[in-house]
Design a protein that fits this description.
mainly beta, Rieske Iron-sulfur Protein, four-stranded antiparallel sheet, 11 strands, globular
Length: about 100
């Protein structure tokens, strides 16, 4: 059964930024895109490296190692060398708190 877990407050992740968390042994990356919050796996599907130190460009996260690009909205691959999407997680805001759904 999945539960929503509080990971941060809105003020901790300003617009055009992202922050990594570990929830139930899963590394996740919460991204603020123009006031909308999205959560993806903090792991590049190309080489399993964290993407935390990459760049958030509009609604795309760019892996710092080889430049693979992923949509933070749906996890789809937008640029090589990755060919497999990354996982996404349901995200909700209640009051000023950010929650993500994890297994």
């Amino acid at each position: 059964m999945s539960d929503f877990v509080k990971v941060a407050t809105i003020s901790e992740i300003p617009p055009r930024s992202m922050k990594s968390f570990e929830v139930n042994y899963t590394r996740v990356l919460v991204c603020n895109v123009r006031g909308h919050f999205y959560t993806v796996a903090d792991e590049c599907s190309h080489d399993s490296a964290p993407i935390t130190d990459g760049k958030l460009e509009n609604d795309q996260v760019v892996c710092p190692r080889h430049g693979a690009r992923f949509s933070v909205v749906d996890g789809s691959v937008l640029g090589p060398p990755a060919i497999v999407p990354i996982d996404t997680f349901n995200t909700k805001i209640e009051n000023d708190n950010i929650y993500i759904e994890v297994d």
